[in-house]
Structures are given as C-alpha cells and as structure tokens.
Amino acid sequence: MHAAFPFGYPLPTAFYLSLYVLTLVVHVVCMNYVLAGSAYLAVVRWRKGGAAHDDPAAALLADWLPLMLSVAITAGIAPLLFVQILYRPQFYTANLLLFHRWMAVLPVLIAGFYLLYLIRQPATLARWPRLECLATAAVFGGFAFIGWSWTENHLLSLQSPAVWTAEFARAGWLFFTPELLPRLTTWLCGSFPALALWLLWQLRWTRPSAGAEDGERLVRTQRCLARLALVMLGLALLSAFVYSRWLPAEDREVFWSPLTWPWLGAALAGAAMQAVSYQQMLARGQFRGNWLMLATSGVLLTTLGTAVVRESLRLARVNLSSLLPQHEAAFAVGGLGVFVLFLVLNTALIVWCLRLTRRRR
Q: For a tag site, which of 145, 179, 260, 319 has the least CB within 10 Å?
C-alpha cells in the first residue's frame, strides 16, 4: 500500500485490477439506472395509482428500463470474469457457502426482466392499476434483492478461513455483518444522482411536444430530478461516512494510505462537481449541456474513485501474494486482442442501436 492504485503490483495483477475496475464502472453506471429507476417508477406509480402519463421521467423509465437492464447485465459479464481471475478462491468459496440463496439471484433476475416488459405496455394492466403498482414494486424489490445478494457475497468473500468454517458448520442461508446495511445504503443512495443525470440527458434529447403545458411539465420534472440528485448525493456521502466508522481501525487506515487517498479525493471532487452543477441548474432554471457535462464528469469521477476505494479495501484484507501465480498464469494465456475486438464491436453496436432509436423517435 505504498503506491497509488494500481501501481506497486506486478504487471499481470495491475493489468487485471485496472480492467476489473474500469469494466465495473461501466456496469455500475448502467446498474444505477436500473436500480434507482425501478425505485423511482414504483414510487411515482404508487402515488398516481397506476401509470403516470403526466411524468415524462416515469414514461422514459417504463420505456427504457428493459433495454438498460440488458445493457447492465451485458456490462456485468466482464467484471465478473475478471474477479474470478483475481480472487478465485474467495469468490468461489462465498458462492458455495451461500449456495441456494446465491442461486436465487438468477430466477429473480429473470422474473424482473419479464415484469419490466409487462409494465412497459400501459394497456396490459390498465384495468388493474393496483396490480400494475404491485408489479412495479416487485421489480424494484427484485433488483434490491440482487444488490443485497451481491453485497452479501462480496463481504463473505472478504472473511477469514475461520469465518468460512463457522459459516459452513452453521449451514445458514444468510450472512450478516455490520458492514452490510451501511454499505448497501451507500450504493443505493449513490445510484439516484446517476439516474437523475441519465434522465436529464434523455429529456434533453427526447423533448415532448412544444405545447405550453408540456413545457411546464418538462421544467417541473427537470427541477425535481435535480433536487433528487442533490438530496440523495448528500445521503450517499452520509452513509459512506457511517460505513467508514463501522470498519475496524486497520481498514480505516486504508482510506488514508497512498494506495487509496488520491482516488478518495477524486470521488469527493466528483461529488462536489455534481453538487455545483445541480445547484447552478436549479438557481438559473436552465438545464444546459455545459452543466450536464460537468455533472457527467462528476458522476464518472465519483464512480471510478468509489470503485477503487472498494477494491483497495478488498486488497487490504486478501492475502494477495498467494494469488499472484494465478494472475501470471492467466496473463500468459493471451486473448487480449480478441477481448478488445469484441469490446469495441459491442460498444459500437450499442451506440448504433441508440442512434437508431433516437432517429425513429
């Protein structure tokens, strides 16, 4: 921990750590849209008693959530592969100890995926508005369950072999540690500023008709999203502080080590950029592209810094020296050219599909 992340590690380990964090950031940015978006849509529909046609943000979410869930799942494949290279014994041990509980993630994800298509069609459940509200709440509940499961799995993978032995003997389906709730709350609250930014860009690109009533509704929704981003950003920072106080003293030292503190500073700088941009948009009553670009830079910087801090805490707990030979063996296999080729190809296809959708609209 004497050099900033990812320096100070052998080349194979630094290579996989860098790719893991970068691909994780892409997954998290898309996952924020799905998790916070399903929560937003559930709240709006419960308040309205069904489909909320007068909320442009809710209409966008109902239309885009199935696609964004597909993108989030696709973007999650790369970090899942890299974490198996980096922390194979820890990751597989946590999977086996959770067993049935961990396997429940897949059917819940499939159910949430199909429910999104069900609530996307207003006529499907038009005669049963409360059932539509229940289906929307079930979607958020399912995605929250998946987030909890991944957090639970991650924290279990960081435990010592003695804790793993005790968990195996207990044969329980759940693993709880005091870190779980503040950590999960931090990720949940932090997903809303990213969602607000996604929606503000979408509202800018897909403006409703130019009628006076539609214009007022658009501005009202934009201001609501900016306020939501500010409030949830503050709650995320508060949750992160509470989480840091839950950590043992040796883990808290990681925050101020050369490994982490530059990235912690970057995450806080990104949060400040977001706060300034949203405050200026609210004060001026204008949601221009320059302030949205500043907020976008802030979200990416905060997400990247948070991902590095998260990984630094894991590196401080895991005996990395025993894993270095596995990293070297994987690095010698090759396949980087194929990975980069399909990364560029899939990214280009996604961008092309988005452009086609925008052109059709």
A: 319
Provide CB contacts within 8 A for 206, sequence distance 6+: 60, 358, 361
How many residues can be counted in the chain?
361
Residue 194 · residue 303 · CB < 8 Å: yes
Other CB atoms closer than 10 Å to residue 325's CB: what's the count? 10
Q: What's the CA gap between 339 and 261, in Å, rounded? A: 31
Contacts of 274 (CB under 8 A, 6+ apart): 193, 197, 229, 233, 295, 298, 299, 302
298 touches 273 (CB < 8 A): yes
Q: What is the pLDDT of residue 21?
A: 96
DSSP 321: G
Residue type present at position 138: A
Reported as half-sphere exposure (CB side, CA atoms, 13 A), residue 225 has a value of 33
| Distances from the Cα of 130 to the Cα of 35, 45, 125, 134, 219, angstroms | 21, 9, 9, 6, 29
Q: At what angle do helices 11-48 and 129-157 cross, to 10 degrees?
A: 160
Ranked by mean pLDDT, the top range of 117-121, 134-138, 188-192, 314-318 is 188-192
pLDDT at residue 94, rounded to an integer: 93
Residue 108 C-beta-side C-alpha neighbours within 13 Å: 19
Question: What distance in Å separates the CA atoms of residue 63 and residue 41, rounded to the nearest whole number?
Answer: 11
**3-state DSSP call for residue 104?**
coil
Residue 5, number of CB atoms within 10 A of its CB? 23
Q: Take residue 153 and report the two structure tokens written for it.
A: 């799995």
Instruction: With beta carbons less than 8 A apart as the criterion, state whether 301 and 270 touch.
Output: yes
No. of helices (H) and no. of strands (E), the chain:
15, 0
pLDDT at 339 (0 to 100): 78
